[in-house]
Specification:
alpha+beta, Catalase HpII,  Chain A, domain 1, Hemocyanin, N-terminal domain, Rossmann fold, 3 domains, 10-stranded antiparallel sheet, metal-binding, catalase activity
Length: 702
């Protein structure tokens, strides 16, 4: 039986359907009434013997388990991973990475880091990207983030960092935000944070979708081949839809309009059959080259620039099934960096070493004891035979007299037998040294890669980083902390430090603290080589009575043909009557939605429709806001008039039946049957570009 089928069968055995069943207690006893407690008379006291009421209320009282200290808010999905070929077998004995005939089931959980379970999806934050591979050799967990580095170098600082970024303890404010004094006080005093701070202040902290987000293993791990030879490795997830982000103004508005934006997006994509896909890639470094890269491979605040070591593709992951129950699966899934299989091992990265302790310790508290691996979402497909017994939530009935090794009464079983790679064997590495609390001198370069990241950004991305730093530090009450952060930024880039200082009311540095080395890595920018596709982009089509029905239908068909998701928004929910007396179904009322929930907006022809929309301030704001956020805007025929009414600056519009594209605004003067197919091709091409970053919006009203 294939592992994917085996995992599905395993989960099927614990699924419960209530259709056509009778209400019972947890002991299976049928209940005739569940709306009133057992009383001594209709107005008398409730009786203690009402076991059904007691059981029902007691279970409710204990429904919630402690949320994760970090990564509390998440969304998850099932899928599978399959390697392209077997080339990686030269470097690892891990079967699921090297045998293209093996399809491995996976469960992936995406998450924010700082906020509680009830916080919004679109806050500025790191995103977790944790993958559980149910391999035939046991479970392997790749517990990563959407950023390839971290704030600190040694896990002993993790409690300090999390305490600093969490809501301040005296008033539990702010929720899911890094814009406050304690975080930036920590940053100002810990220069090792500066590289990660550049990532956090960039657009990477505002992903458009979990489906459009990279993932990284963060640490340098070690692959071990069948002969026992080790190779250092960095692990990368690359989304096939490309890596795209929201803009800061959008994220704040989405948090109010739809705080479940990313969670909903993932769920709806899978339900609609638009299965998200990622490619797993690796950067490999031989042990002989460990010290030749110019930085320490064990430092989790460093990347390996792709110009030095290219990312080589290994295989593809597809997420194709949503969980049946959020709590049972997404909330109870337990990841652990130390869940490895033969062929994958650790390095001496001090942050990774601490995570290997911390994750197990965390699950023991959250999930009620040592038997959390019995929860269906955590169970491996590989057979489990061990001497672990009893404990809270024990789900197995062990038979036999022995629960120890070695034994004769149980025939010596379970027996330790076999050699690597059939069994896991820790990589043999010579380790010696004095017991000291001291960091290697090779960890002391705190700024060069922060500078590399900033140098690699395009002008719009740099502008966003400056704006983010101004916003964050503008929320800091203590001016001396603002000034101290600017001093740190002056080691990264002098111009950056000056621009930030000018926006937050502190003196700008006059000279760079550290000269900018001038190096860059184009792979670090999301805009240098974007993936251009309109697939799964959500398009708002603004309509009202009198709309061009034929043109609208052609528009919708063209968008769907290219994988986009058009939705018709009208002044009121229900149907609109087209100019040729057709009924068109409005998907939603425009005032229940917002432009920030869409990737583009199109206004079809129809003089009466446009006249009605022009009288609707919400519709005008919808177009204006989308324009300010750099989104593709389309209009044809009379629809152009709504763009004029919205005051879209100097944008040039089509006349005389031509097609004009001006900084992502695509217009055609024609309508209905005379509208050229080329218009739809041009519009789709602009939607695929995601944003028109060069658009000047300074003259557009807010």
């Amino acid at each position: 039986m294939a592992p994917t089928d085996e995992k599905d069968q395993q989960l099927e055995s614990v699924r419960v359907e209530n259709d056509g069943t009778h209400l019972t207690t947890q002991q299976g006893v049928r209940v005739d009434h569940t709306d009133d407690s057992l009383r001594a008379g209709s107005r008398g006291p409730t009786l203690l013997e009402d076991f059904h009421a007691r059981e029902k209320i007691t279970h409710f009282d204990h429904e919630r388990i402690p949320e994760r200290v970090v990564h509390a808010r998440g969304a998850g999905a099932y899928g599978h991973f399959q390697p392209y070929d077997s080339w990686l077998a030269e470097f690892t004995a891990a079967e699921f990475l090297t045998d293209p005939a093996v399809t491995t089931p996976v469960f992936v959980r995406f998450s924010t880091v700082a906020g509680s379970r009830g916080s919004a999806d679109t806050v500025r934050d790191v995103r977790g990207f944790a993958t559980k591979f149910y391999t035939r050799q046991g479970n392997y967990d790749l517990v990563g983030n959407n950023m390839p580095v971290f704030f600190i170098q040694d896990g002993i600082k993790f409690p300090d960092f999390v305490h600093a970024v969490k809501p301040e303890p005296h008033n539990e404010i702010p929720q899911a935000q890094s814009a406050h004094d304690t975080l930036w006080d920590f940053v100002a005093l810990q220069p090792e944070t500066m590289h990660m701070i550049m990532w956090l202040m960039s657009d990477r902290a505002l992903p458009r979708s979990y489906r459009m987000m990279q993932g990284f293993g963060v640490h340098t791990f070690r692959l071990v081949n069948a002969e026992g030879r080790g190779t250092f490795v960095k692990l990368h997830w690359k989304p096939l839809l490309g890596t795209h982000s929201l803009v800061w103004d959008e994220t704040q508005k989405i948090a109010g309009k739809d705080p479940d934006f990313n969670r909903r997006d993932l769920w709806e994509a899978i339900e609609s059959g638009a299965f998200p896909e990622w490619e797993l890639g690796v950067q490999l470094v031989s042990e002989d080259d460990e010290h030749s890269l110019g930085f320490d491979l064990l430092d989790a605040t460093k990347i390996i620039p792709e110009e030095q070591v290219p990312v080589r593709p290994v295989g593809r992951m597809v997420l194709d099934r949503n969980p049946d129950n959020f709590f049972a699966e997404t909330e109870q899934v337990a990841f652990h960096t130390a869940n490895v299989v033969p062929g994958i091992d650790f390095t001496n990265d001090p942050l990774l070493q601490a995570r290997n302790f911390s994750y197990l310790d965390t699950q023991l508290l959250r999930l009620g004891g040592p038997n959390f691996a019995h929860i269906p979402v955590n169970r491996p497909v590989a057979p489990v035979h061990d001497n672990q017994r009893d404990g809270f939530q024990q789900q197995r009935i062990h038979r036999g007299r022995t629960s120890y090794t070695k034994n004769t009464l149980g025939g010596g079983c379970p027996v330790t037998a076999g050699e690597f790679p059939e069994v896991f064997a820790h990589y043999q590495e010579k380790v010696e040294g004095r017991k000291i609390r001291e960091r290697s001198a090779s960890f002391q370069d705190f700024y060069s890669q922060a500078t590399l990241f900033f140098n690699s950004m395009t002008p719009p991305e740099k502008e966003h980083i400056v704006a983010a730093l101004r916003f964050e530090l503008g929320k800091v009450d203590h001016v001396e902390i603002r000034a101290a952060v600017v001093d740190q930024l002056n080691h990264v880039d002098h111009d950056l430090a000056v621009l930030v200082a000018q926006g937050i009311g502190v003196p700008a540095p006059t000279e760079p603290a550290t000269p900018n080395h001038g190096r860059s890595s184009p792979a670090l920018s999301q805009l240098t080589a974007p993936v251009a596709t309109a697939k799964t982009r959500k398009i708002a089509v603004l309509v009202a009575d009198g709309v061009d029905g034929k043109g609208t239908r052609r528009l919708v068909a063209a968008l769907r043909e290219n994988g986009a998701i058009p939705e018709l928004l009208a002044p009121v929910d229900g149907k609109v009557r087209s100019a040729n007396d057709e009924d068109l179904k409005a998907d939603r009322a425009i005032n229940t939605m917002a432009s920030v929930l869409y990737d583009a907006v199109v206004v079809p022809c129809g003089p009466d429709s446009v006249a009605a929309l022009s009288q609707d301030g919400y519709a005008l704001h919808f177009v204006t806001e989308a324009f300010k956020h750099g989104k593709a805007i389309g209009a044809f025929g009379a629809g152009i008039e709504l763009l004029r009414k919205a005051g879209l600056g100097e944008t040039r519009f089509a006349t005389d039946e031509d097609i004009v594209t001006d900084l992502g605004v695509v217009t055609a003067s024609a309508a209905e049957d005379s509208l050229s197919p080329k218009y739809f091709e041009t519009l789709v091409a602009q939607i695929a570009q995601h944003r028109a970053w060069d658009r000047d919006t300074s003259s557009i009203p807010a």
